[in-house]
Amino acid sequence: MIVKAYPPTYVTGSSLSFQSGRNITAFWEGVKLFFHYGKAITAAGGTTYNYVNPIPGSSSAYTFRTTFELPNLPNQQTFNLLQPLFDALNAVGISVKNPSPSPSTQWGTSLNGIGDTPGNSRFTSRLFPRRNWDDAELWDRTFAAIREVTEAGYTFHGIHMAPSLAVGGYPGSSGVNPAFRETLMHADIFDSASIRGATPQAVRDAHARLSFYTDKLRAVTPGAGAYMNEADLEEPGWQQSFFGDKYETLSGIKRKWDARGVFWAPGTVGSEAWAVEEREDDGLPTQDGRLCRVDA
Q1: What are phi and psi of 107, to 5 degrees?
Q2: What is the domain class of 11-247 according to CATH?
């Protein structure tokens, strides 16, 4: 693991939110404008943290909200950077006002070192390459997939970020999935439907449906990947998705330094050499059982 330390940094924060109301066409046009404007945000060294949510109990109503975070960018410059987005949103019929930026609370001392609490939802992950923003036809297909996923009842959670090699800097030869270096947005699809007490078949059906809609995103991001810390435990082709072309090199390091496979977790380097023996023949993934070598 490589950890970099930086001096205290002032991070400017701002926000934006709106909902579909009666004008669903304007809502989706606004969301599309926002997601595309993420390219300008990352070019300024910033990030966004956003959600597109179906409104519970409605089949055609949605909410959108996001925060903006701009390190080392004064308040007035942040305001000026965001104003074209707010102007474009108002032009398509979404009445929003560019608020006065203020210090972001996400990076202060108020959390006292306490992170997130565990949740109870299943989700999948996808990295969106910069090329999806640079090609107009590909961008249209990309947003169409995002919209289709949300209209299917899932929450789409996006984070605009651009951890390029130029930004990451030394050392460039780390084990980071190369897909991250081309990424302009990382996103999760959340399935918050309760499966507690459901039959094994119902659980499999729910996952199959989630994977079906995630495939819509995979189709417009071929060769990209997924963020393993927020990915599906059953991510197809996880070796490539999580590690890209670094996987063979990492596998060699694993075999050299952990020849007996002492360290194991699902979806990690070399984990395919082992499998958890199922106690119940229900076909569901489990870690409650004996860990056995696959070849044994």
Answers
A1: -115, 15
A2: alpha beta
